[in-house]
Fold:
Amino acid sequence: MKKLLPIALSFAFSSIAQTPAANVTFTRDVARILYQHCVACHHPNDIAPMSLLTYKDARPWAAAIQQAVVTGKMPPWKADPHFGKWSNDPRLSPSEIATIKTWIDNGKLEGDPKDMPPAPTFPDGWKIGKPDAIIAIPEQTIEGSGPDQYVYINVPTNFTEDRWIVAAELRPGNRRIVHHAHVFIVDPPAPAKAAAKSTEKDPQKEYARWLKIKEGTIEWVRPEAPVIDNGCSVDDNGVFPGSHVSDLGSLISSYLPGREADVYPAGTARKIPAGASVNFQIHYSRTTGKKEVDATSVGLIFAKEPPRQISRRIDLSNHLFMIPAGDSDHSVTECHTFDKDILVTSLTPHMHLRGKSMRIVADLPSGEKKTLLYVPAYSFNWQITYRAEEPIFLPKGTRVEILATFDNSPNNPMNPDATKPVRWGSASETEMMDGWIEYLDAPPTTTTSAAQSLDYQTYKNTVEAIFLKKRPTHARCVVCHAAANHAFRLEPLNPGATAWTDEQSRRNFLTVSHLVKPGDPLSSLLLMQPLAHSAGGAEFHSGGRQFASQTDPDWQAIAAWVTGR
Structure:
């Protein structure tokens, strides 16, 4: 693959080089590429150092843009392309790289302003759209000198009823000093029980407490603790004694270098109980050398309807490893066996400054080993969540291996100190070894995706046309269902487009297939939710009733696709 890429690029470059330079302009050719791949970060008041929304913004950075895209430095992407397909892969195609290169090499022409595509909008800076609720920490003052500071702050939600959320975005109040942050759900206190609690201490929890040293808000494993580098000798071998791996992880959003906002898969949500709080964990760096203030917040978007499934997350971690001083290629592992069928929706490697590589492997009950994700050159500065293009089915009994390597040598430019062994700790100068897995419970009878028994071409030609159709007294389906706050979410149309690209249609097809029971229209949410209740439809549909009866031609067209007629 790597050997073929330069050839592909050379053909693309030579093809465009034969085109008059005047035919490659910013407004018609370059802006659409930047809008699709770059401006999610490169817009005002976001993580990138400059905006690329307009010709005036982009032109002074032309040389830097060319170097970044030709070398593959930007957009950032660390996954080996031989393993897995990811919906958030931002890499430019060879022809897109060639277009940018030709534009820059031939005068950086602006072009006709009428050719400019509509600019993406970022409401008040929120990537998920306008939140239904914003929860902020009290303003924090961070002094200009001293070690990095870690704060843990609980903030009440003041929710008087349970809330299901479909998206969450953790937004730093001061990007100059917030290195990374997480926000967790803290359940409300359980009612006090009448019976007195036992005063007997749990030996495992007491031992786990001894293993960790805590100083202020920072904790780390004590140097003399037992060492377990091989967390796969038995399942969950490297976790703290007494810990239990949970698939209802309370983390709802993270702010990390290279990480997008957290938008959960269509039809799923996470619950925040009434009376809950949210816990912010924030790492402040003192990079500016002066006193700074911050008021980080999290924005939440509520589900418009009850979710079909809970979006689950499990963190597979080794807490008891030790990386020897000077070791340039130290291996640490952790394993876990799933006791049910699951559909993996995303994978995230997480290490600190000495992280070198991570491979996530599924050992299937059939005996087959399947690499789900391989990040050969991990970067602490770009901690990317890899979102599966199609949910990855893992049958009950699958053992997932997290295989990490670390570089604690002087040759690692990120290494704070190569002369000391390193153990687990919350500060970036210590280390972590985590594989974060987001997934859904697979339907009981699912052994393959429902999409495999449905015809894609009929879907694209017939069903999607109905989603785009304007019906009397109703908005088009796409108007509501392309919004982030819908459990059933279609791909947003590209600016100026009247239909989806084939790639977008295929993603829509996979989303829609989860709302369909092949062969049974009356058990398919896709048909029953928008059908009038008097005609046998579901009791609730926030978008009104598109179909008054089962004789509606469009309802029958979708039903015919579901039954395979």
Summary: The first strand starts at residue 133 and ends at 136. The chain has four domains: 5-121, 123-187+250-309, 226-242+311-447, 450-563. Residues 450-563 form one domain. Confidence is low (pLDDT under 50) at residues 1-21.
